[in-house]
Design goal:
Blueprint lengths: L1 H22 L9 H8 L5 E6 L8 E8 L3 H9 L11 E10 L2 E10 L2 E12 L2 E9 L1 E12 L5 E10 L5 H7 L5 H22 L32 H5 L1 E8 L5 E10 L3 H9 L10 E7 L8 E6 L8 E5 L7 E7 L5 E8 L4 E8 L7 H9 L3 H19 L4
Antiparallel strand pairs: 1-2, 1-9, 2-8, 3-4, 4-5, 5-6, 6-7, 7-8, 9-10, 10-16, 11-12, 12-13, 13-14, 14-15, 15-16
């Protein structure tokens, strides 16, 4: 009987969402045209656009993905705060406590390893989507604006515009974010990624009793190498002009394949490529305290020994050059995250130079805190990797490590 009621409720919300979609005609409900164009050029990856400079303003970003679920089903997922726990397993409270017209007032609490976050939000319907306005508590003031639209191939585009006061959160998060001037937009990217992907995952598995998550544990990635060519395509120019653009590539298993972040620079392409090719540029990565290059020998390539100064994680590693000079990428051959890799590419454009950092950092292997976060919410494997790639890319090109 309970399963029949759940299906009946879903059907009710799908019908209501379809009616809402049918009324959506004005520009406010249309998905972000810049994001959609970039998504079409992304080769199957998800797209994230960061607004820079962020400090000291509240961080702001936009993100987009494609799902096989219908637009009505995605809207139905967002329309029902009473079932938000089926989006986020760590959401221990999502309770409607009042209404103002079509707006629902919802009290929420999120259980995260070592601490909880809580507050109040207002769920506001809009043409083609919903706005979740955080009005009190952690992350407030802030908003998450979802827009949903059908695609010509029968799938659905879902975009998210996110602006949250992430500094208004737990001591642990504030301590981690304080490691870099770019810590707050990095933290926002992880939260926004989880919100976006949790929504589409629920829409793709609407009859599951609980939120669908991958059961396959993270593992060392197959050998990879940087490929940021998609970020050099014209469709990404408007996103890069606003600050930074990123791609999140998933493996066929659904686990992380790589994250790529593009940052605009005023340096000449040759000078920027030479600077980023030198391991001493890694000192700009937040928390990389010691970077010691070791010369190549007759039997081994150049290696670099790294020691970190980051609490709760272990980034100590020995990195080996895995490509010829000029287009360097590196792989961790010793250390907790053995098998992790990253690399730079530089693309000249009409008025700037684009520096693209691509990586798979294996965060689940870097200590008990990242591992516990990912175990609690598997989507944080990609979300935290996106945050790390962003803060490293911007710090190396613009500075800002503390």
């Amino acid at each position: 009987m309970r399963r029949r009621r759940r299906r009946s409720g879903l059907a009710f919300f799908v019908a209501g969402a379809a009616a809402l979609l049918g009324q959506a005609r004005h520009a406010d409900g249309a998905p972000d045209a810049e994001l959609v164009a970039a998504l079409d050029a992304a080769g199957g990856a998800d797209v994230v656009a960061f607004e820079l400079p962020a400090p000291p303003r509240t961080p702001h970003l936009r993100a987009a993905t494609v799902t096989g679920a219908s637009t009505a089903t995605v809207l139905a997922v967002l329309a029902d705060p009473g079932h938000y726990r089926a989006l986020l397993p760590s959401l221990v409270r999502s309770e409607e406590i009042g209404r103002r017209g079509a707006t629902r007032v919802v009290a929420w609490e999120l259980e995260i390893p070592l601490f909880n976050l809580s507050g109040t939000l207002e769920l506001r319907p809009r043409a083609g989507g919903f706005e979740l306005a955080l009005t009190d508590g952690d992350f407030s003031p802030g908003r998450l604006v979802f827009d949903v639209a059908p695609r010509g191939d029968g799938r659905t585009t879902v975009t998210l515009d996110a602006r949250l006061d992430v500094a208004r959160s737990s001591f642990l998060l504030r301590h981690i974010m304080a490691r870099s001037a770019w810590g707050e937009p990095a933290a926002l990217s992880a939260a926004a990624w989880v919100a976006l992907r949790a929504t589409t995952s629920r829409a793709e598995h609407p009859q599951d009793a609980a939120a669908f998550r991958l059961k396959t544990p993270p593992a060392a990635p197959p050998p990879g190498q940087p490929d940021g060519r998609a970020l050099s395509r014209p469709a990404f120019a408007p996103l890069a002009a606003g600050g930074a653009a990123a791609l999140v590539n998933l493996a066929p298993s659904g686990r992380l394949a790589s994250v790529a972040v593009s940052v605009a620079s005023r340096e000449a392409p040759a000078a920027l490529a030479a600077r980023l090719a030198a391991p001493r540029s890694w000192r700009a990565f937040p928390g990389w305290r010691r970077v010691q290059p070791m010369p190549a020998t007759a039997t081994s390539a150049v290696t670099v020994i790294v020691e970190d100064a980051i609490p709760f994680v272990d980034f100590d590693a020995t990195w080996r050059a895995a490509s010829p000079p000029g287009s360097p990428w590196w792989i961790a051959v010793e250390g907790a995250a053995r098998g992790a890799w990253f690399g730079w590419e530089v693309f000249p454009s009409a008025s700037t130079t684009e520096a693209v950092l691509t990586m798979d950092p294996r965060l689940e292997a870097t200590g008990s805190i990242p591992r516990r976060f990912i175990e609690a919410e598997p989507l944080l494997e990609q979300g935290m990797s996106l945050a790390l790639a962003f803060v490293d890319a911007v710090s190396a090109t613009r500075g800002g490590a503390k």
